[in-house]
């Protein structure tokens, strides 16, 4: 007697969870992604004065861990900015910005620029050694492992963040000592 084909087994599905429609909660996603070690950078830009006779322009800075190399030819990098953050708004209007790759001895800089409800950006730069980039006018932090000056090539909204792709205009590797500043499981770390 020929065999009757049996119906395929029903797919196994995870029970629905509170949170996003796809089933992962914000806390679960955050916990999983905290296991990915990331380098820490300071993204900077110069906000020009609103009017020629008004207050001077201002340096703006933001700590970021979502930063990566995209392409060698042309040299492109990507940074992820929270929608509506001051840096996101500034780079929407001003295409020139810079990145300083922070060293393990610059944890205080990363912490200062990551503060929520922070003080004026002018005060954040007060005692930090930096030079002004020739291509962008943005602050490049002294003692950083690498310094890049960039011009925005593309912006793409992705959920609650904007991905900004920048063409690297200059790249410097100063003679800074030490290893990179890392971010892992919600804390700044160093290699070793």
From TrEMBL:
Pro residues bias: start-end ranges: 1-14
Gene3D superfamilies: Electron Transport, Fmn-binding Protein, Chain A
Domain Flavin reductase like residues, every copy: 33-190
Domain of life (superkingdom): Bacteria
Pfam families: Flavin_Reduct
Location of region: Disordered: 1-22
Alphabetical keyword list: Oxidoreductase
GO molecular function, one term: FMN binding
GO biological process, one term: pyrimidine nucleobase catabolic process
UniProt-recorded name of the protein: Pyrimidine utilization flavin reductase F
Source species of the chain: Streptomyces davaonensis (strain DSM 101723 / JCM 4913 / KCC S-0913 / 768)
Lineage: Bacteria, Bacillati, Actinomycetota, Actinomycetes, Kitasatosporales
């Amino acid at each position: 007697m020929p065999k009757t084909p049996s119906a395929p087994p029903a797919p196994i599905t995870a029970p629905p969870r509170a949170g996003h429609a796809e089933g992962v909660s914000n806390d679960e996603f955050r916990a999983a992604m905290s296991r990915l070690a990331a380098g820490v950078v300071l993204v900077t830009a110069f906000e020009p004065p609103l009017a020629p006779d008004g207050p001077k322009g201002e340096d703006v800075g933001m700590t970021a861990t979502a930063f990566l190399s995209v392409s060698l030819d042309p040299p492109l990098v990507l940074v992820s900015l929270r929608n509506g953050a001051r840096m996101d708004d500034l780079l929407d209007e001003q295409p020139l910005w810079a990145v300083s790759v922070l060293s393990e001895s610059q944890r205080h800089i990363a912490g200062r620029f990551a503060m929520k409800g922070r003080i004026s950006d002018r005060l954040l730069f007060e005692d930090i050694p930096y030079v002004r980039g020739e291509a962008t006018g943005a602050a490049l932090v002294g003692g950083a492992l690498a310094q890049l000056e960039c011009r925005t090539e593309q912006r793409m909204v992705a959920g609650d963040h904007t991905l900004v792709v920048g063409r690297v205009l200059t790249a410097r590797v100063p003679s800074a000592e030490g290893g990179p500043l890392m971010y892992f499981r919600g804390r700044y770390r160093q290699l070793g």
